[in-house]
Write a structure and sequence with these properties.
It comes from Corchorus capsularis. It catalyses: (2R)-3-phosphoglycerate + NAD(+) = 3-phosphooxypyruvate + NADH + H(+). The chain is an alpha/beta fold. The protein has 3 domains: 107 residues, 3-Layer(aba) Sandwich (Rossmann fold), CATH 3.40.50.720; 180 residues, NAD(P)-binding Rossmann-like Domain (Rossmann fold, 3-Layer(aba) Sandwich), CATH 3.40.50.720; 224 residues, 60s Ribosomal Protein L30, Chain: A, CATH 3.30.1330.90. It is built from 20 helices and 23 strands. The strands form 4 sheets. The protein has a 7-stranded parallel beta sheet, sandwiched between helices. The protein has a 6-stranded mixed beta sheet with strand order 15-14-16-17-18-19. Strand 7, helix 9 and strand 8 form a beta-alpha-beta unit. Helix 3 runs parallel beside helix 15, helix 7 packs across helix 9 and helix 16 runs parallel beside helix 17. The longest helix has 23 residues. The radius of gyration is 32 Å and the shape is elongated. The structure holds nicotinamide-adenine-dinucleotide and 3-phosphoglyceric acid. The site of nicotinamide-adenine-dinucleotide (NAD) has 32 residues, from helix 7 and helix 9.
Length: 644
């Protein structure tokens, strides 16, 4: 990352040529290969150099294959790195041996044993149930992962108290209304859930409640236990032939519908986002909210708690229901205005209610709703079967371990879902994207606020066949991290860019090249800014850096209107010079004398014997004095040192 102070004071000045021709042969000790080009802006030379030892031949194949493997292994972990892990790696199987290097996983609610075992095989597991909010805030700063069910409130306070160490929150279940997703996104913490393993359990509980309510099972049981035999009091209603409205035709809702049809009920559903053909396939008609609530005998709730669904069942909507309607809620308490429900029960508008979930859990012991004689209640038991809890525990443990290893979970809630094969294919481009962002921002002159960045992807692929979200996130990371305290990962990249007023637009250019590669080149253009390296400004007046992946390794292939070709490893020195013999050798010698190892060098020019750009890859950061000496080389007009 650039040290902006030194970048401003040392690397900004331009140096004017004092024209001192030197013989090109003076470079020969460092020159390992040389390529000519007839295209005036194509690289005219590619050098692999070692300024410290002329005999240390660079083993290109070995290095590239190593880099490829390293890139593939790091792609997702770099995309998911949080503040704390910025300077460290994600956890791997190698870390499992030692307690110090193993991640700490806090489990704050009871989790199935199989899931715990899986977690213990990977990290130090701290099962601390019933923590107060204060205790959770205290503990969280030493945790890498937190696993919760519906009973733990993962608030902004908790997420901020983690101070960047917490990489993932795993919700062992479906509903994530107890996790402040916005805050998690802002701090770059991934949230994953376990959305499938408790579906059947919740659906079975819904059916159990419908039947128990219709036949007064709970009340009759309590009455008998109180020594009574009240056969006339507990005459129920039949389910067969009745209309059941399923509100929210997702995983649980559709399973409830399937089972209710088996009981002979006429099932209708309302879900603004569910596909009609999926409902039709199980013989359910999707209808409007008005129609569903005004025609149903039973209403079963299966939508998430969102700002839209919050208290969607209230005095007004109860008023539009059939007299004597029966309501079941195994979704979330907050979708019902509980006081309005008490009123509707008292008036007889709602004949009965069966509730598994409540606005406040547990509800107050004197809750009118809980105590109401026409209401049956269970303490949030929808997901509580042995089978579901084992399934959920394994599902969430796998997702959390995956996230700690740097993998993107298929159940990520606040990050783009990028399929595994796409991630593997994009691995080297992710690294390229971040480095181009990093280079572009370091080329901006101090004081020029960056507002607008355009990214151009050139590819043979159809625009629909290229998912650029990951690349955009990494470019954003590359641009923002060197100039702010923010740490960026895939989770918070878009949010942070927006917050900083940075507009990132993307353009896809389809070109005639091999479709085997997902991306031919990536160009990052920064508009309306001055550059500390004037040659980085393209003909359109924008800072432009362009790169490609060659043999799995990211390369810089363009700066401003110049073409170069330099591997993006280590650090980079860009020099603009009068195209004349001897310059390369002089710069090489200065670096060699300072024991700064040159890994790659490339020269691109516009017109022969006119302007040229030299891109020099260096392993170490040169001393200020070394850079100053480069500036004194005759023919060098300007230069800049960039950290990759
Ligand atoms: N009681 C329990 O123990 C228990 C167990 C599992 C799930 N749940 C809860 O049940 C609910 C459903 O879970 P799921 O796994 O089926 O989720 P899901 O995401 O598969 O389904 C939710 C459905 O609700 C729909 N929806 C969203 N807004 C809506 C609206 N305004 N009106 C109607 N439909 C709307 C969505 O389109 C989606 O199809 C969640 O709130 C979940 O937390 C509770
Ligand atoms: O959303 C869910 O998955 C259910 O409400 C289950 O919650 P629980 O894990 O607290 O039982």
């Amino acid at each position: 990352m650039a040290n902006s102070c030194s970048a401003k004071s040392i690397f900004s000045p331009s140096f004017t040529s004092k024209s001192q021709p030197t013989s090109r042969s003076s470079n020969s000790s460092q020159l390992l290969s040389f390529l000519h080009s007839t295209n005036p802006t194509r690289p005219i030379a590619t050098f692999k150099l070692s300024s410290s030892s002329s005999s240390s031949q660079y083993n290109c194949d070995q290095k590239q294959s190593l880099s490829r493997r390293r890139l593939a292994a790091n792609v997702i972990s770099s995309a998911l790195k949080t503040a704390e892990s910025r300077e460290t790696k994600s956890f791997t199987e190698d870390d499992v041996g030692s307690d110090q290097t193993r991640p700490t996983i806090l489990v704050s609610e009871k989790l199935g044993e199989a899931g715990l075992q899986l977690l213990r095989s990977f990290g130090n597991v701290d099962c601390s149930y019933d923590l107060s909010p204060e205790q959770l805030c205290e503990k969280i700063s030493s945790c890498d992962a937190l696993i919760v069910r519906s009973g733990t409130k993962v608030t902004r306070q908790v997420l901020e108290a983690a101070k960047g160490r917490l990489k993932v929150v795993g919700r062992a279940g479906v509903g994530i209304d107890n996790v402040d997703l916005q805050a998690a996104t802002e701090v770059g913490c991934l949230v994953v859930n376990a959305p499938t393993a408790n579906t059947v359990a919740a659906a079975e509980h819904g059916i159990a409640l419908i039947a128990a309510m219709a036949r007064n099972v709970a009340q009759a049981d309590a009455s008998m236990k109180a020594g009574k035999w009240q056969r006339n009091k507990y005459v129920g209603v039949s389910m067969v032939g009745k209309t059941l409205a399923v509100m929210g035709f997702g995983k649980v809702g559709s399973e409830v519908a399937r089972r209710a049809k088996g009981l002979g009920m006429n099932v209708i559903a309302h879900d603004p986002y569910a596909p009609a053909d999926r409902a039709r396939a199980i013989g359910v008609e999707l209808v409007s909210f008005d129609q569903v609530i005004s025609t149903a005998d039973f209403i079963s709730l299966h939508m998430p708690l969102t700002p839209t669904t919050n208290k969607i069942f209230n005095d007004e909507t109860f008023g539009r229901m059939k007299n004597g309607v029966r309501i079941v809620n195994v979704a979330r308490g907050g979708v019902i205005d509980e006081e309005a429900l008490v009123r509707a029960l008292d008036s007889g508008k709602v004949a009965q209610a069966a509730l598994d979930v409540f606005t406040q859990e547990p509800p107050p012991t004197d809750s009118k709703l809980v105590q109401h004689e026409n209401v049956i209640v269970t303490p949030h038991l929808g997901a509580s079967t042995k089978e579901a809890q084992e399934g959920v525990a394994i599902e969430i443990a796998e997702a959390v371990v995956g996230a700690l290893k740097g993998e993107l979970s298929a159940t990520a809630v606040n990050a783009p879902m990028v399929p595994q094969e796409v991630l593997t294919e994009l691995a080297p481009y992710v690294v390229l994207a971040e480095k181009l962002g990093r280079l572009a921002v370091q080329l901006v002159a101090g004081g020029s606020g960056i507002k607008s960045v355009k990214v151009v992807y050139r590819s043979a692929r159809d625009p629909d066949d290229l998912d650029t979200r990951l690349l955009r996130a990494m470019i954003t990371k590359g641009i923002i991290e060197p100039i702010s305290d923010s740490y960026i990962n895939l989770v918070n990249a878009d949010f942070t860019a927006k917050e900083k007023g940075l507009r990132i637009s993307e353009e896809r250019v389809v070109i005639d090249t091999s479709p085997d590669m997902p991306v031919h080149s990536i160009q990052v253009l920064v508009s309306n800014v001055d550059s500390k390296f004037a040659s980085a400004i393209s003909e359109n007046g924008e800072i432009s850096v362009e790169g490609r992946v060659k043999y799995g390794v990211p390369h810089l292939t363009g700066v401003g209107s110049f073409e170069v070709d330099v591997s993006l490893e280590g650090n980079l020195i860009l020099c603009r010079q009068i195209d004349q013999p001897g310059v390369i050798g002089k710069v090489g010698n200065i670096l060699g004398e300072a024991n700064t190892n040159v890994s790659f060098m490339s020269v691109g020019r516009t017109v022969r014997r006119n302007k040229a750009i030299m891109a020099i890859g260096v392993d170490e950061e040169p001393e200020k004095e070394t850079l100053r000496k480069i500036g004194t080389v005759p023919a060098i007009e300007e230069f800049v040192f960039l950290k990759l």
